[in-house]
Design brief:
This protein is an alpha/beta fold and 178 residues long. It is built from five helices and nine strands; from the N terminus they run βααββαββαββαββ.
């Protein structure tokens, strides 16, 4: 999930610490590096972008899909429900994510119905489902997004057996930068 890198529209909490221009610069370069690093013949990268009018630059082979409207949960479930079996969705501000993390999460869907990658702040950096098209449209409704409760709330709403994979860091403030 990627937002168009515009000052004041992305990484605003980080922007309060280092300035909106610098936060946007970090985000733009981080997303570019992350897409390059996660490219792998074992899967297809799909960039869920926002807003609808966004100009998102990818390396050409990436598929781009508009996230749609609504809160974070609405947009995540919309993207997941369109995905093929054993799909995962990740945030665009995750530091340290490697192909091995994605492969481990996809492998977990071999014997689990859903997978979550916990973030250090109580949220999560990855969500996936063995059969994402079967998830209900409101399965992520009511989660307390952008709080330390996001992981617990989401785990309680997902059906079936859930795997937890690697704990990684997302970037919200200057203290989260590597």
């Amino acid at each position: 999930m990627v937002k168009e890198p515009r000052p004041g529209r992305v990484k605003t909490r980080l922007g309060r610490d280092i300035g909106m221009i610098d936060a946007t610069w970090w985000y733009r370069h981080h997303v570019d590096r992350m897409l390059r690093n996660l490219s792998d013949p074992r899967w297809t990268l799909v960039v869920g972008y926002a807003p609808k009018t966004a100009r998102i630059i990818t390396r050409g082979q990436d598929i781009k899909i508009w996230q749609g409207g609504g809160n974070l949960g609405d947009r995540m479930i919309r993207l997941l429900r369109q995905a093929p079996p054993k799909s995962v969705l990740i945030g665009s501000d995750i530091t340290g994510v490697k192909r091995r993390h994605i492969a481990r999460a996809i492998a977990a869907l071999g014997n689990r119905d859903a997978v979550l990658g916990p973030a250090r702040d109580g949220g999560f950096w990855l969500i996936g489902a063995r059969h994402p098209g079967r998830l209900g449209k409101s399965v992520l409704s009511g989660a307390r997004w952008s709080t330390a409760h996001a992981l617990v709330d989401t785990k309680a709403r997902l059906p079936g057996r859930i795997a937890l994979v690697d704990i990684l860091n997302d970037v919200d403030t200057v203290d989260d930068l590597p």
